[in-house]
Amino acid sequence: MLAEIVISGSGGQGVLVIGRLIAEAGFLEGQEVVWSPSYSAEKRGGTVSCMVTISTEKVGSLMITRPTIGIAMNHAAAIKLEPALKKDGWLLVNQAENGYQPARKDIHFLTVSANQLALELGSESTANIVALGALLSIHPVVSLDGVIKAMAQLFGSKILEMNKQALIKGSKSVKTKDEKI
Amino acid sequence: MSKKVLMVGNVAIAEGAVLAGCQAYFGYPITPQNEILEHLSKRLPELGRVFLQTESELAAISMVIGAGATGVRAMTSTSSPGFSLQQEGISYMAGAQIPGVIVNVMRGGPGLGNIGGAQGDYFQAVKGGGHGDYRIINLAPASVQEMMDLTMLAFELADKYRNPTFILVDGFLGQAMEPVIIRDAVTKFPAKPWAITGAKGRPKNLLDSFEMNPVNYPSRVKKLLDKYEIIRRNEVRFEGLLLEDAEIVVVAYGSASRSAMSAVKLARTDGIKAGLLRPITLFPFPEKALRELSLRIQAFLVAELSGGQMIEDVRLAVGLDCEVDLVNRYAGVPLPAEEILESLRGIALKQRKN
């Protein structure tokens, strides 16, 4: 098993899209992958999450109960994700609202101001891609190249360039390699 | 060259139908199977085939009867409440020996239920939710690849036995995405001399599901019953994992079997000799394989997303001398591997004490 990733946020933040990009990139790199959304009746802005498993061998359970990596696109998602993480797991929190502090001492904690960085590129809508870039710079479960290839498959040419820039910007935004606290 | 792509389970069912030569699809939207309609609404018209969004599930199954009667490969798909509505038509198809594929991407129930994945329609699908003496071939995929492959097989078996065939799968698999090898399209189809095609230059064909004559009708039903016996003999499919030296065997299908696969591997690292038997056909049920295992194994664990339905068939197969436990979730909630592992640990502990 290489990674069990849970991505969570609110509807419209592109949570399913970054899950899909990780899965596609893993697939292009020859790994076994499963992408699985948690779906329910939700209104716009409701909670959305998805699970992605990247593995060298056939994947069993579709469901991830103890992720090795959590990406929280907002604080509400971080509060839910943190207790579920495996020991020594990684939690990346989008600090759009500033100041999320994890309670656990046995996980790696990273932050990225994804909305602000995305806005600097012209649109907050790429905040999810910035966050993905940030994660991959620290924990390369799939390569940036793989994600760019996946984006070329999934995105129209109009938005491709902006998203590439968002990915690169995100990947350069995290300064320390290990912020274990 | 076969192509490998990432695909959503429901889309794999739809593509499997296209590859199997499905000429006509009729359906009514319901979550969690909507991607099947969505995909076919584009694909089938592109190929000059029929896609029709009906006014109800009742209309959909009736149209499958009509299309199937003319000899074309026809399909409908739905989720639990819609599947209930279709039972009368399915019973009619069985009686009139009209082939067709019916997909049920199960959600929580009973009643309206929720849109989460579940396996609570096992009794209805496997034992016959409609009236009368009939059986349906039930195929239960456990991966997105199998959703494509078994949909193709469903069309083949439906034609071979002139019988409706079900794809019974839970919503979690319907929504999940995995790599799939795209299969080659079917190019050879069986002749259907029984089909209603206009009777030019031949005696007329009649397809109905009963006879007024009280002498002829039982012999007609007997033919159906004989057919089901042949299906029982020839069409049992299952997959085993680590069964050779297993001391506890998990029995599970669909997404529950995926969790079970993880649990069995984790149990092995704990020193528990667990194995997995995964029925691929629910009717016919792999009862012989289970019975043979029961001669050397005393403990079975059924993992399912229902209140406990398939467990009844496992108990029938292995008899009263074996312990058959249940680990389950229901009402649209997934079953975590850790939960199955806990049950395996409990059984192993009990075995050590004895």
Any overview of this molecule?
Chain A is α/β, with parallel strands linked by helices and 181 residues long. Chain A has a single domain (3-171), classed as Pyruvate-ferredoxin Oxidoreductase, domain 3. Helices cover 36% and strands 21% of the residues of chain A. The mean pLDDT of chain A is 91. By secondary structure, chain B is an alpha/beta fold. Chain B is 43% helix and 19% strand. Chain B contains 13 helices and 14 strands. Chain B has helices spanning 9-19, 34-46, 57-69, 80-85, 87-96, 122-128, 144-161, 171-175, 216-234, 254-269, 287-294, 310-318, 337-353; strands at 4-8, 24-27, 50-53, 74-78, 100-106, 137-139, 164-170, 177-181, 238-241, 248-251, 274-279, 281-283, 299-304, 323-328. A seven-stranded mixed sheet of chain B has the order 3-2-4-5-7-6-12, sandwiched between helices. In chain B, strand 13, helix 12 and strand 14 form a beta-alpha-beta unit. Chain A binds chain B through residues 20, 23-24, 27, 32-37, 39-41, 58-63, 65-66, and chain B through 6, 31-32, 114-116, 172-173, 175-179, 255, 258-263, 265, 334-338.
Task: Name the features.
heterodimer; A: alpha/beta; Pyruvate-ferredoxin Oxidoreductase, domain 3; 6 helices; 36% helix; 21% strand; B: 354 residues; alpha/beta; Rossmann fold; 2 domains; 7-stranded mixed β-sheet; 13 helices; 43% helix; 19% strand
